[in-house]
Each structure stands twice: as C-alpha cells, then as structure tokens.
Amino acid sequence: xxxxxxxxxxxxxxxxxxxxxxxxxxxxxxxxxxxxxxxxxxxxxxxxxxxxxxxxxxxxxxxxxxxxxxxxxxxxxxxxxxxxxxxxxxxxxxxxxxxxxxxxxxxxxxxxxxxxxxxxxxxxxxxxxxxxxxxxxxxxxxxxxxxxxxxxxxxxxxxxxxxxxxxxxxxxxxxxxxxxxxxxxxxxxxxxxxxxxxxxxxxxxxxxxxxxxxxxxxxxxxxxxxxxxxxxxxxxxxxxxxxxxxxxxxxxxxxxxxxxxxxxxxxxxxxxxxxxxxxxxxxxxxxxxxxxxxxxxxxxxxxxxxxxxxxxxxxxxxxxxxxxxxxxxxxxxxxxxxxxxxxxxxxxxxxxxxxxxxxxxxxxxxxxxxxxxxxxxxxxxxxxxxxxxxxxxxxxxxxxxxxxxxxxxxxxxxxxxxxxxxxxxxxxxxxxxxxxxxxxxxxxxxxxxxxxxxxxxxxxxxxxxxxxxxxxxxxxxxxxxxxxxxxxxxxxxxxxxxxxxxxxxxxxxxxxxxxxxxxxxxxxxxxxxxxxxxxxxxxxxxxxxxxxxxxxxxxxxxxxxx
Amino acid sequence: xxxxxxxxxxxxxxxxxxxxxxxxxxxxxxxxxxxxxxxxxxxxxxxxxxxxxxxxxxxxxxxxxxxxxxxxxxxxxxxxxxxxxxxxxxxxxxxxxxxxxxxxxxxxxxxxxxxxxxxxxxxxxxxxxxxxxxxxxxxxxxxxxxxxxxx
Lengths: 562, 151
Description:
The complex is a heterodimer of chains A (562) and B (151). By secondary structure, chain A is an alpha+beta fold.
C-alpha cells in the first residue's frame, strides 16, 4: 500500500469516527435537547471532514461538507431549532457523505450541487423549536460529564499491537498458573514449608488480581459499543425506504453493549444481509399490512444483550414470517437433501444451506434466501452461531450468538472418556451428580429425572468415543456427572465421565491448520501444561442431534433394504 | 490429495531411481526423517525446531492424518502424520514447521538426523541415498500444499 493510500485510509477511519460523533450529538436534537456544545461538536466535525476531503482531493465530499456548513450556520444561534424535516435532511445528507467517503469519494448519482437542494430550506429565525421530550429532573441539564466519553481524547492503536499485548498477558497468566501448580504440588509433599506456602499464596493472589486487571483493561481497548454498527443498519433502512413505498422504523436497544472490534468488523456484512432480507421480503407493503390489521409502518428491531461471555444480537421484524412448507419444497426442487427434516424449525433452517439461496427461492418462499449460508459462515467464522425463529404473519427473529472476545473465562474442566476438555461456565446452567437410577429409558431415548422433570439425556462418553458403546442402565456406578444446558427453550442433560476442576482459562482460537470441528470453539493450556480443547455444549448437543438423525436414517434405510 | 499422491508415487520409485547430478557442487543441509518406514528429506531452513515427542491431545472426532494438539512452551500446535495415524506410534520426534509466520504445525517422525546432500534439484525424482537408504525430498511447497490439502 503506498503512503498516500495509507493516509487516505486513515482519513476514512477518522471520518467514520467523526460521523459517529455527529450522530451522537444529533441524537440529542431528535429529543429536542440539542445544546450549543452539541451543535459546535457537529460543526467542528463537519469542518474537519471538509478539510480532510480537500487535502485528499475528494472534491465532491468537500463541496458537500461546505454546503452543510453553510446550512448549519443558519442554526448557529438557534441550535434547538434544528429539528423535524431540517434535521432529517441533515441526517440523510450526512448518510450520503459518509457513503461517499467510504467509497473513496467517488460521487455516484447526484452531484454536490444537486445534493444541496436536499437540505430543507427553513428559516430558524421564524421556525418553532420542538417541545423537548418529558424528562426527569436529573436529566434537565445534561452535564458534559454525563457525555464525557464522547469528548475523550482518542489515540489510534493498531489492533495487532493490542493483540500482542493481550497474548503476552495470557502467557503471563498461564505461567503464573503453572508456577502455582508446581509450588502447590511440591509443597504438599513437604509439610514444613507451610509458612512458605502461605506467603506464596498471598503474593500469588496479588499477582493473579493484577493480571486480571491488566487483562481487563487491555481487552477493553478492543471493545467497542455496537452503537455505530446499529446506526449503519438504521442508515441502510433509511436509504431503502427512500426508494420504495414501504414504511419501516428501526427500534434499537442495548446499543451500548460492547463487542470485540474484530468480531464487530465481521458482523457488518451479515447484519446488512439480514436487514435487507427483512426489508425486502419480511416487511409487507403498507396495503398488505393494513389488510392484515397491522400498522402500516413495519418495525425492524435491533437488540444487543450481554449474556455470560456471549453477546446476543437479535434482529426481529414484524413482517410476514417464513413459510416452512415453501422452504422445504423449494429445497427439494433444488436437489437439497431434506430427508432428515422432521420439524418446521428444521425446515426453516434449510435457508442456511449452501445452494439454497437463489433469487427464485427468494420470490417463491417469501424471501430469506439471499446469502444466508454466507451469513452463517461469517458468524461461525468468528466462533458464533445463528438461530432463526418465525411465525407466519407475525415476523421473524434472527439471533446471533457471538463470543464476547474476552480471553480469560471461568470454565469447568471435565474428562470425557480418556481426554480432558474445558467448558465455559456460562454454557452450563448447573452441574450435578445424580445416581444412574435417575436416568430412564423410553423408546431408545434416555431421560434424566431432574427435579421431577424428564430432560433428554445424552452421554458424551458415548458420542466422543472412538469405539462407541451405548450407555447401559445397569452400570454400577455411584453417580453420573451431568451438565444441564439450555438449547432454545429446552433443558438438556449431558453427562461427562468426570468433573475435574473449576478454573479460569485463557482461550485461544484453534490453530489455523487444525480441523474445523463445529463444537470446538478454541483451545487453552491447563495448569499442568497440557493443551485442552474448549467445547460449546450447545453446539455439541446440535452435533449429537444431527448425528443421531443420520444414524436413525441409515438404520431405517438398512432395515428397508433388508 | 494430489500432492499426497505425488509423494507416495515418488516413494515407489525409490529403489530404482537413485540419481545424482555429478556436476552439482552446491550442498544443502537437510533433515532426514522417517515416518512409518519411509524416509524423507526436508530443507533445514524450513524447520523451526525439532523436539521430543510429547503428549498429543486428540481431537474428539477422528480426522485422517490429524492427530491432535500439543503445547510447545505454551503455544498450541496442531500435529499431523504423513502415515495413517495408527502407524505413528513409533515416531519419537516432533518436527515443527513454520511456512507462514505464526502458523506452525508439527509432523511426527522417527530417525531424525541432519544430513548434507548435493544440490537437490539435480535429482529428477528427488530421491537420494543417505547412509545406504533411499530418502525422497519433500519440497516445502509440496509439504505446505499437502498440509493445506489435509486441512
């Protein structure tokens, strides 16, 4: 990359930050709380973008920024009057400027001169200021302190440097764990060293705490709120509604939830796919909605929630939903193997099958075909997963479960057959040890009697075994170690051979050349120095279900052939 | 699997195809190793280190030629074998390659030894006689391609 291109890329990144700041400030205008400081922040940012564009010869962007500056000048003495249509026109104008800059400044379609006419001609001297939204007494005077994070000094640090520092912290953490293990195992053999052990433990605890803090601070450098990502999605919807007769509003919640920047970078494309599908094929046109007794304006809701060590990104629309029968038929027409499909949910999941997504499929089956396999690949590529739930005429919800990006996580070390595995504690609702008599069998399916509730029971020993052996209910064993997990709304019981320890592990991605195993989400090093694979029990359960279905089908085919 | 086939085809020719270019005077340091009775030569500079075999943590599912993971002073490295996994029991060394920075991988091997050969390219079938035994050269590209092929 030449120097000029590098500088341009830096400018584009800086401009994106400036657009984000402008949006935060204009967010206050929407609620009638635009202060003089907010206005100045917007004006400064627009001016900086203008200067940068000029420097890089982005003539069109520069002219647009100049036009916007001129327009904003009118509101200088009455910032609170920047509202309604005027505010909308400014936001749309900014959207276009941002798109232009991201595309390297090349104007597509209208020119700066034409675009200028899109800024609503209002006279702030005579227009009315909006009624501010009702607010609590504490909110009446928004202090600078409350929004201090917006004006913090920011330095840009390449992600790989932060990663390097995190890797080093992880190494220190692992060394500390191993030293601790070595000392404890040595001292336990020599009782006269008790005093030494106590002092060691005090120092070790302090070291552990410091490493934890250091890890947390460094990790936080990589974390970013999903706000900017959601705002991009909102922008996509705004641009879409301009070109169609559909009316769609976007509802956003949890936008301050933070996600690893690397994960977030991977997320924009799949989110745009999902949003486009919701707009194109989910939300009906106003007439159709009216006929169904729905409000004419459709709603796409974007939510982010923190759950344990994962972030859930939920994209929900109140559109027509997905017709599972049409999906199944379409898949069969395309030659996709549907022999394992037994439930409507499984039929809907076919949208993620490679080869399903074609324009024809989209038209025939109420949409949802475009790029869904790509979306799934993107999400799984960052160690996440995607689920869909839908109801005809009520809408569709996609839930993306993404790793938070934290490297140190509480985990349970278990043994399955001869091998140890780590399981994130957040994956497990409860660990229990129950007598084998609590395991019941019916029609070949095992169930665990858990608080008088029969949960589907699976023995991981059997599934991970290289020489599979069915669980025998006659096993004379004191107690069976069981992990209770939640898969959607269902509780599942998965047994392991042994619970070994509760600990904290530093997770890393599996090495690039390791085979891709859907339910192995990473690897770590134990205090003994051994590597251990990290399992996602939910994904293990999904793998087991598929495996069982395939086995049943194969058995049925063998039976039929015999 | 094309590269893999190429390697094994080369092995078949070992007994009859020992050739060396008499005119070649460039010497190259190589590592000779064996895997399930077959000898290979790999350029020394392609090898990051050679360690004693350590405990390999297997994957929960079997994958051909993927043996599992090892910890190399805290670094997690995938382990491969050029032979079927059940034939690798006697391999007592881990040869760690790093063709791409930060992406090491390990091959299990036995009878690992540093040798010097005449310019390798002189041999049409890339086969050399080392201490009375034939050894076929595993070019870095072949090996990298082979590993990628397995992955």
